[in-house]
Amino acid sequence: MEATTITTDIRSINEKIERESAFIDLLVSEMNKNIVGQRYMIDRLLIGLLGQGHILLEGVPGLAKTLAINTLSKAVHGSFSRIQFTPDLLPADVVGTMIYNIKENDFTIKKGPIFANFVLADEINRAPAKVQSALLEAMQEKQVTIGETTHKLQKPFLVMATQNPVEQEGTYPLPEAQMDRFMLKTVIDYPKLEEERLVMRQNLFGKTATINPVVSVEQILRAQETVKEVYMDEKIEKYILDIIFATRYPEQFKLDSLKPFISYGASPRGSINLALAAKCYAFIKRRGYVIPEDVRAVVIDVLRHRIGITYEAEAENVTSVDIINKIVNEIQVP
């Protein structure tokens, strides 16, 4: 009897998710007017948006990172702001400050660019630690304190930070604890030849499409709540926890060879975000339940920046992605 009830529940959740996620295809096709290919990046943006998380994008300049979040903000009918991080930036340039108003003989609050639905933090590793922590605090708390007043940030609130992996001169690398606050770290590669041909033609002929707002902010907020209802079986939960614990104690999972390469494993934020990202991925695929493939699809982006590697790993050119792949291939799939 209980099994029948669960089956009925899953069926009703599945129908609800299919109904609520109908806007995903509409949103993606609208974004594809301006963005050629890069479906991987678009999916990660949507996971961040639906999971109320933030994304760290790494890739060489010119891979449409700025264009992607700008296009998303237009398609969702949300506000967009871009902060170009530089070494002379101050926290007040990000969150805002108090300005003295001579007419009223009083201080007024001038809000910073962080007060938007979609915030692009361009080259986050170019700004000093004070500015990085001001941004990351706003991301974590979803609020900003200016003077003595605390202001809630708009919903939905998505920060997409970018960093250029090529240049290391004059940069301030994000500390591990700060990196952990990003739900996903996505590495973007060059487009395929045919895609780049299309990009080249579009730019030569100046063909930039007008992006129409196809999804309302209310729909996104409703979807963020609906994502939580996606069904996750206990076996999937155990699968996620096995992966996380294997990053901490590889010897318990017959992965002794990885022990010398890992300095620290994923934190509890890793398991929370892996479960949430898997639910978001299932939602994007218009499914009301999580399958192991959903977990495997997002595991690298969720854990790549949460595993510390040792000097020995660096010497042998072993990356955190290599470690994740080894773990995922070894852990038994439910």
Automatic annotation (TrEMBL):
Domain of life: Bacteria
ATP-binding listed as a keyword: yes
Keywords per UniProt: ATP-binding, Nucleotide-binding
Residue ranges annotated for the ChlI/MoxR AAA lid domain, each copy included: 260-327
Pfam families: AAA_3, AAA_lid_2
Domain ATPase AAA-3, chain residue ranges per copy: 54-184
Protein's UniProt name: MoxR family ATPase
Organism this protein belongs to: Paenimyroides tangerinum
